[in-house]
Design brief:
The complex is a heterotrimer. By secondary structure, chain A is an alpha/beta fold. In chain A, 38% of the residues lie in helices and 18% in strands. In chain A, strands 9-8-7-10-11-12-13 form a 7-stranded parallel β-sheet, sandwiched between helices. In chain A, strands 2-1-3-4-5-6 form a 6-stranded parallel β-sheet, sandwiched between helices. In chain A, helix 3 links the parallel strand 1 and strand 2. The interface between A and C is medium-sized, with 27 and 26 residues.
Chain lengths: 448, 283, 422
């Protein structure tokens, strides 16, 4: 720890920082919890999508307060928990005024850790329609930045062929505290067959492999998925075996000590799963390493080791596990989740190798998605921003504090935030979500 | 008056500070030390951890018990209450309750940054209550937090006296019995480095008003936790209220109760009629 | 036997030399670690296992219920019963057979056999005089009587006694016994060093291959066997001074097992039950035989497994040629060499009641992933180390592959078992 960090984190330091305008960040609502206040649904047009999806989730909703456009903003009285805007019928630039009119009162009326969810359509149609689509994106990101006290805003592109069943898990996730650190993001829900409705323990009876599960984010992922009912195969390198065994025993899963870069890693995972008489429902490629150096100082070994662990190994393992009919391989309707990084999407000084590998993960999941559609296997990635772990703790203090504060929520995320997002992508009800990269970054200023 | 963080370059020797902390001060109003004291990047001593585990009844594992982390913060408690600007002294201060949060398993090979400050001086019918707030972090990640509440007898601080929160107790037949040998205080001193002679010396125990040496509350706390060891989750909160001292040698009863909020271990008199310590673990 | 008993798998801590990385761990700590790793590998956390049987050779008085106490500290359900067993260096294998027999009889569906030993934490006892004095003093009703009891003590009675390492009936240590056996069988220094070298090379290669990834779980920061010297050479071994058999002796620290710390555990199950539970099966436990020799009468202390091997093969209608892989516990390299010579020696085999020689073996089938010389030998753990190691090797060779385990033990005893891949 540096002298600066000591001064800053001391009680006096905190007081000084507060006077300088650096407030203690809000405590975020987390877990499988809906907001305390009511959910407000604003439908801009004739769409039934938002209403039907909320009905499917069993959530009552209220009508919005609409701003008349004057100086006086009508208020909500008691704070509202969430605003869902069904803008799927919104096609004309002039219609954006209707969006402004429902957002303005809500921005002031939203409770701490509340959510704004805007439902739009994927880019399509005439010039104006496409301009509107991008406009929604700009609005969402701005709302995310203007909201205070840990509230978030996200935009979902719902394919015209997709219905409430496909949308339900995504809307549930965004209203839940599970999405606490997902802010200012946009992703797409596509049509899918045989999508089940969301449930409390969606992963019950399903076997999921989590790599890098001995500690940090990986351990949080294993615990969270186990909470949602999954039977976990916790994978980590043999030297981490004791921590791995403790994690596996805590969640009544199994431990598999394995170097994922071994050529037969995929086969050994399959053998372990098959040995347990199970089929593999999902794999979470969380294992990753950093070997940071400016590119000018990066030798071939540093380059290769990061790419090998973070990208090449998971591609090889996927290929093995996707072998049709392989005992212990991925079943039809299964799930692949990669872990990318905002550093990969935006680039980060000193991390060319890491950025390459993590951007590669985003590319890989997008590329696999259409090819796996026939087997109803989805492939997605999360891209964590600044998450408080032992790995990020090695970042120098000033840089770390800047990273922490450089997002709309004014704080670093927690491993559980990444884990919950992965749980959402693994949910059988998320059948319509594939080829997507969801950033878990609190709307970090870095990256797209 | 401004407070600063005082970074110590080694674990403070407890002898001198302890002696100072034992000297009562006579001031009208109690005052707490303002500074936060800290130790940076401390290596854990595996041999002492093993000895600690033996004395308290823990199985030696890679992950350390939370009470061990408390032991590592204790020299800073002594240092703070022995500080010149503190009028609240360890002498006559009784450890009445303790609360710890284990945020994640901590491994024995991790280097720890340990910080302690005093907080929340508040009146009590018999004096004043003060919290010694500890935090253990690994590379900036907070892994453990502890609040040790002491009752400083005879200290004065303005305000309405506050009662200590008590976990409910009802007498019941113990599930088991612990026999505490006469050498236990000495054995625990060897691993905790707590030099307070009331735990080891008959004469000095009497001088402080105890008929016999008293076992450290934190040993009782640790031993109660050790009875649950295999059933503890990876992260949890544990609180303990110390109701009455246990004299050495001695025999006490204990029982375990599972309920919705968590698990309690209740250390009682041999017949289960009165509590010595009530501990509650909540996931 | 009514039920087929299979080895599901195993787990052990890495082994370390006495006073090494595991020196602070007690038998209890070690055994708990071995069980917890096994529980994690097979997803048994919170479940009630039929029975856990295990033990330690060097036990403290408070270890009287070692295995049950370890179960209570482990992630297993507290309703898991356990008992302690002890058969010297063959404890782990004896515990395996105890549970295998219960499973075969239908008394259990599954169980865990375990063994642990800490030579770093070996019990130091007081002299017999001291012990009697203490008992007398505690019985004494008056202070006077207590003083009188203590007055009988002499300074020499106060000296602590290290655990006895010699055979009670011969007064010879195991190494001294083996030195006599080695001379009798003409075992050379070179033969012994070759065996030691092979042990280190085979073990090192197995570690490099990741063979132990699903057999070992790190403990207290130690991830690999600490006694292993992958780079040792015949020249280095040849430079070591003899430790047994006088100055012309052939037994050195390099070709004798080191005092070690460690623990191991094996998961055994009824084959049908394992299949129902979705647990893998590596090998079937076929049969076992125990034997003893009259070492006070001059027999070779550590060659009891020879008779056991012959009787076991005969009962199963097998010859040594039917065995694909052989594990001979390397108490000393000299023990392995003498055992192999005795197998080929018709006279010796007849003298222990066999019909004829057991026969010669292909050395490439012996201890193929190393044995106690390189791994170490925490006494009670070794049997529970070898069983899953051999089961995994046999499984890799394919169904029907057979393996034989030969273990010598103190008191002139030997235990031999056969496994067959499923």
């Amino acid at each position: 720890m540096s002298a600066l960090e000591m001064a800053f984190t001391s009680r006096v330091g905190r007081k000084v920082a507060a006077r300088a305008g650096l407030h203690e960040p809000p405590v975020l609502r987390r877990g499988r919890t809906y907001p305390g206040g009511p959910i407000v649904l604003a439908t801009l047009g004739a769409s039934r999508l938002g209403a039907d999806t909320l009905a499917l989730l069993g959530r009552p909703y209220e009508a919005p307060v609409i701003d008349s456009g004057g100086d006086e903003v009508p208020g909500y009285g008691d704070r509202i928990g969430a605003l869902v805007v069904d803008a799927t019928d919104l096609n004309r630039l002039s219609d954006l005024e209707a969006l402004r009119a429902v957002l303005r009162p809500a921005l002031r009326g939203l409770e701490a850790s509340g959510s704004v969810v805007i439902l739009g359509r994927p880019p399509a149609g005439d010039w104006e329609q496409r301009a509107v689509t991008r406009a929604l994106d700009g609005i969402d990101r701005t709302v995310g930045k203007e909201l205070r006290r840990g509230a978030t805003s996200n935009l979902i592109h719902v394919d015209p062929e997709a219905g409430p069943l496909e949308l339900a898990s995504t809307l549930e996730f965004l209203l839940h505290g599970r999405s606490a650190f997902v802010d200012g993001q946009t992703w797409t829900v596509a049509p899918a067959v045989d999508t089940p409705a969301p449930s409390e323990r969606p992963l019950s009876g399903r076997t999921i492999v989590v790599t890098g599960a001995a500690r940090g984010i990986g351990a949080a992922i294993a615990r969270t998925l186990a909470r949602d009912g999954a039977s976990i195969v916790a994978v980590d390198v043999p030297p981490a075996g004791e921590s791995l065994a403790a994690v596996a025993n805590e969640i009544a899963g199994t431990a598999l000590q394995l170097d994922i870069t071994a050529p037969d890693a995929g086969a050994r995972i399959a053998a372990h799963v098959a040995g347990r008489g199970e089929g593999l429902y999902g794999i979470v490629h969380n294992a990753g390493i950093t070997r940071d150096k400016l590119l000018a100082n990066t030798d071939a070994q540093r380059w290769a080791s990061v790419l090998e662990v973070n990208l090449v190994a998971q591609m090889r393992i996927n290929e093995t596990l996707l072998t049709p009919g392989l005992p212990g391989g991925l079943i039809d309707g299964g799930r692949i989740v990669g872990v990318a990084s905002t550093s990969g999407l935006a680039g980060n000084k000193g991390q060319a190798n890491y950025a390459a590998s993590k951007a590669g993960v985003a590319g890989l999941v997008a590329a696999m998605a259409p090819d796996l559609a026939a087997r109803r296997i989805t492939s997605n990635a999360v891209a964590p921003g600044f998450i408080e772990t032992d790995m990020t703790a090695r970042i120098p203090f000033v840089q770390r504090e800047i990273f922490r504060r450089a997002n709309s929520l004014g704080q670093g995320g927690r491993p559980i935030d990444v884990a919950e997002t992965i749980g959402y992508l693994l949910d059988p009800a998320s059948q319509g979500v594939t080829g997507q990269v969801v950033r878990v970054c609190g709307q970090n200023v870095v990256g797209a | 008056m401004t407070a600063a963080t005082v970074t110590l370059d080694h674990v403070p020797a407890m002898g001198a500070a302890f002696a100072r902390a034992m000297v009562p001060t006579h001031r009208a109003a109690a005052r707490l030390p303002e500074a936060t004291v800290e130790l940076l990047d401390q290596r854990q001593d595996p041999e002492r951890l093993a000895a600690y585990s033996r004395v308290c009844g823990f199985t030696l594992k890679d992950a350390v018990p939370p009470t061990w982390l408390h032991v590592l913060t204790f020299p800073l408690h002594v240092h703070l209450l022995g500080a010149h600007d503190s009028t609240v002294r360890l002498v006559g201060a009784v450890h009445v309750s303790n609360e710890m949060t284990m945020h994640r398993p901590v491994r024995a090979d991790e280097r720890l940054t340990i910080r302690v400050h005093a907080d929340r001086l508040r009146p009590h019918a018999k004096g004043a209550l003060v919290d010694l707030v500890g935090e253990v972090s690994v590379d900036g990640e907070t892994v453990w937090e502890g609040i040790s509440t002491y009752l400083a007898h005879g200290a004065h601080t303005p305000g309405l006296p506050e009662a200590l929160p008590r976990l409910p107790f009802s007498p019941a037949e113990p599930h088991g019995r612990w026999r505490l040998g006469p050498g236990l205080g000495r054995a625990y001193r060897g691993v905790s480095h707590d030099p307070n002679p009331i735990h080891t010396s008959k004469v000095l125990a009497r001088a402080f008003g105890f008929p016999r040496p008293v076992i450290h509350g934190m040993w009782t706390h640790a031993h109660a936790l050790a009875t649950l060891e295999a059933r503890l989750p990876a992260s949890y909160r544990v609180s303990a209220g110390f109701a009455r001292p246990i004299y050495l040698p001695g025999t006490v009863g204990f029982r375990t109760e599972h309920h919705d909020a968590g698990t309690d271990v209740i250390v009682t008199t041999r017949d289960g009629a009165k509590p010595h310590m009530i501990m509650r673990v909540t996931p | 036997m009514n039920h087929t008993v299979v080895v599901v798998g195993g787990n052990r801590t890495p082994f370390a030399k006495a006073g090494g990385a595991l020196r602070e761990a007690s038998n209890h700590d070690l055994m708990t670690a071995a069980i917890d790793g096994l529980v994690a590998r097979y997803g048994l956390a919170g479940t009630r296992v039929g029975e856990v049987a295990g033990g330690a050779v060097l036990k403290h008085p408070h270890d009287f219920n070692l295995t049950r106490e370890a179960v209570l500290s482990s992630a297993l359900a507290p309703e898991t019963p356990a008992c302690d067993l002890q058969q010297a260096c063959a404890t782990g294998l004896e515990a395996t057979m105890y549970l295998a027999n219960k499973i075969a009889l239908g008394q259990l569906t599954h169980g865990i056999a375990a063994g642990a030993d800490s030579t770093s934490d070996a019990p130091i006892t007081v002299s017999g005089e001291m012990q009697r004095t203490l008992h007398a003093a505690s019985r004494a009703r008056s202070a006077q009587a207590r003083v009188k009891a203590f007055s009988r003590l002499r300074p020499s009675h106060l000296a602590p006694l290290a655990p006895r390492v010699e055979e009670p009936r011969t007064g010879l240590s195991m190494g001294e016994h083996q030195a006599i056996t080695g001379t009798r069988w003409g075992i050379t220094r070179e033969e012994q060093d070759d065996i030691a070298l092979a042990s280190h090379r085979n073990l090192a290669a197995a570690w490099d291959d990741g063979f132990f990834d699903d057999l070992v779980t790190p403990f207290l920061g130690l991830a690999k066997d600490a006694i292993l010297r992958p780079d040792t050479t015949l020249e280095a071994l040849a430079r070591l001074r003899p430790v047994f058999g006088g100055e012309h002796g052939t037994m050195t620290a390099g070709n004798s097992t080191a005092l070690s710390d460690g623990a191991a555990a094996v998961l055994l199950a009824d084959a049908d039950w394992a299949a129902e539970q979705g647990l893998p099966a590596l090998a079937r436990v076929v049969d076992a035989e125990v034997a003893a020799v009259d070492h006070p009468g001059g027999a070779d202390l550590l060659l009891a497994p020879v008779a056991a091997t012959g009787r076991l093969l005969a009962r199963q209608g097998l010859t040594i040629g039917d065995i694909d892989l052989i594990e001979i516990h390397e108490a000393f390299a000299s023990t392995v060499a003498a055992t192999l010579k005795a197998w080929e020696d018709a006279d010796h085999c007849r003298s222990v009641g066999l019909d004829g020689p057991i026969g010669a073996i292909d050395r490439s089938r012996l201890n193929v992933t190393g044995s106690s010389l390189a791994v170490g030998h925490p006494f009670a753990a070794t049997g529970a180390r070898i069983v899953p190691t051999l089961a995994k090797l046999l499984h890799a060779r394919g169904p029907g592959s057979r393996g034989l385990i030969s273990m010598c033990a103190a008191g002139g005893q030997g235990l031999v078992a056969i496994l067959e891949a499923v």
